[in-house]
Amino acid sequence: MHTPSPSLDLRRSREPRAAAGPALRCRRKFLRFFPGGFADEAYVEWERSYKWETHERWQEALGRDEFRRLLGAREFAEIAARAVRVEQRSRHSMIFSFEKMALRDAVRPPEGAQAFAEGLYQLLHGRGAVARRFERWVEVVAALPRRQTRVLTWPLVTVFGFIAQPDTHIFLKPNVTRTAARAYGFDVRYSSRPNWETYASLLDFAATVRRDVRDLRPRDMIDLQSFIWVQGSDEYD
């Protein structure tokens, strides 16, 4: 007769009583790959470190004070170039090559660079409710110059907020996110066109995951997005 390992018994004993059904299965899947939870060395190496390093590069290149200084100097093209460069230098890029090309084309004209720079600053550091700032950011991205490939995609709309402010914003990769939400039994009210309702429901999804795995001590949206990624990515089948 098979005797469960002590580590498995320990993990089960720590499972919150509120977690059940699909949520519990997702928790167990995550711990199957990363028994140490969000502190697991493999987890940090595979999922967290490159995202946090990208955030640190953003802080160096476009932290709030530097971003504001460049805006005041009307260095819109420099802001756009730095934003694109920070994401491109990531060990594992979060956006597809066609999205990178579309963004580069969109910010090449001066009017595109200005709209991008001012819109992104307002999303990150503007006044007012996050909902309105996000809606305005979607409008800005939708109006950017376009050559062949569309710029208005969920990854492009959410990647910079996630990189810049992982305490607040989360990254939405459509197929993975929808697969994860189905596995968790959560309705993210998905629409292919970026919008606040879908994004707000993803934030609610992340908050639900945070509550359900609070004993594993997730630090920020990087950990929550990574948990969601493990549920939906075929890398973890």
List keywords for this structure.
237 residues, mainly alpha
How much of the sequence lies in strands comes to under 5%
Counting helices, strands and paired strands, the structural category is mainly alpha
DSSP strand count: 0
| Spatial shape | globular
Radius of gyration, in Å, reads 19 Å
Mean pLDDT reading: 91
Order of SSEs:
HHHHHHHHHHHH
Tell me the span between the first and last alpha carbons.
Answer: 28 Å
Number of discrete helical segments: 12
Contiguous runs where pLDDT drops below 50 for at least 5 residues: 1-13
Instruction: Report the sheet with the most strands, covering strand number, pairing sense and barrel closure.
Output: none
How much helicity do the residues have?
Answer: 55-70%
Report on the structure:
With 237 residues, this protein is mainly α. It has helices at residues 6-13, 22-33, 41-62, 64-72, 76-88, 97-107, 110-125, 130-143, 154-164, 174-184, 196-212, 221-232. Helix 4 (64-72) runs antiparallel to helix 7. Residues 1-13 have low confidence and may be disordered.
Q: Summary?
A:
The protein is mostly helical and 237 residues long. The protein has helices at 6-13, 22-33, 41-62, 64-72, 76-88, 97-107, 110-125, 130-143, 154-164, 174-184, 196-212, 221-232. The chain starts with 5 loop residues before the first helix and ends in a 5-residue tail after the last helix.
